[in-house]
Amino acid sequence: MNMVLLGPPGAGKGTQAKVLAKELNIPHISTGDMLRDTVSKGTPLGKKAKEYMVKGELVPDGLVIEIVKETLKGAGMERGFILDGFPRTLEQAKMLHETFSKLSKKLDLVLYFKTSLDTSVTRLSGRRVCKNCGGNFHIKNIPPKEEGKCDHCGGGLYHRKDDEEATVKRRWSVYAKKTEPLISYYKDEGNLREVSGDLDVDELNKILIALFHKENLV
Ligand code: AP5
């Protein structure tokens, strides 16, 4: 199954994608994670991407599209994949459509996580990420067993720079302008399904698994 997770910052796309990737045994492709990895390596592409990411702006389409194209062509994508945070602009959606046509693939499902700004700000202000393995925690909702330490690998946890409240608000306004138009784009294509991103992780996961069965996708 090939699916896209769409929704504002803090909707829980990454958290749910990790759970679903294990349950369905398909790769989780997060453009946010790939870009952060490039930034941490300090490559010219990483330096360029960082300028946009710290301000809460989108990285230019050209840079992101190239990264995604290469990933989709790579090994391990045969049984399907979960795209998290891509596409985020109409330009990216058009590129995805073209790439799918060339690779004889189709987009089965776009899951739109409708989420309130309050939920997002609460989640992002409390999010802590592992420096080592990228594990995601929340100081109240999903706390690590030991404060400041990753449950999976023992790595140190940090607060993302773009999770500060002013930058989260900027990310929301960029989302409203550039990404929200994708909701009607995919509604018109007929493969968009709306779920509530405000639900807790397990509750939402159950709803999604039921949806996949109902649509004969698993
Ligand atoms: P990216 O990393 O993709 O950020 P985002 O889409 O804003 O998503 P987030 O990671 O903030 O939220 P999420 O919905 O994944 O929530 P999560 O599960 O982590 O992108 C970062 C930047 O990279 C962008 O601003 C842009 O600059 C650039 N970029 C990336 N893709 C791009 C593209 N395609 N084009 C151009 N630029 C691009 O959860 C958040 C917190 O809440 C966590 O602490 C988690 O533990 C907790 N939580 C999650 N779900 C629940 C729940 N159900 N209940 C309670 N707590 C929960």
Short note summarizing the structure:
By secondary structure, the protein is α/β, with parallel strands linked by helices.
Shape: globular
Total domain count:
1
Strand content: 5-15%
The CATH topology is Rossmann fold
Count up the helices.
9
Q: What ligands does this structure carry?
A: BIS(adenosine)-5'-pentaphosphate
What share of residues is helical?
40-55%
Strand count? 8
Instruction: State the strand order across the main sheet.
Output: 2-3-1-4-8
CATH class placement: Alpha Beta
Q: What profile does the largest beta sheet have?
A: 5 strands, parallel
Describe the structure using short key phrases.
binds BIS(adenosine)-5'-pentaphosphate, alpha/beta, 218 residues, five-stranded parallel β-sheet, 8 strands, 9 helices, globular, Rossmann fold, three-stranded antiparallel β-sheet
Explain what the structure shows:
Helices cover 49% and strands 15% of the residues. The protein has 218 residues and is an alpha/beta fold. The protein has one domain: Rossmann fold (3-Layer(aba) Sandwich). The termini are close together. Strand 5 and strand 6 form a beta hairpin. The strands form two sheets. It has a five-stranded parallel β-sheet with strand order 2-3-1-4-8. A three-stranded antiparallel β-sheet has the order 6-5-7. The structure holds BIS(adenosine)-5'-pentaphosphate.
Summarize the helices and strands and which ones pair or pack.
Layout (H helix, E strand, L loop, with lengths): L1 E5 L6 H12 L3 E3 H11 L2 H10 L7 H13 L7 E4 L5 H13 L6 E6 L2 H10 E4 L5 E3 L18 E2 L6 H15 L1 H9 L2 E5 L4 H14 L4
Parallel strand pairs: 1-3, 1-4, 2-3, 4-8
Antiparallel strand pairs: 5-6, 5-7
The chain binds BIS(adenosine)-5'-pentaphosphate.
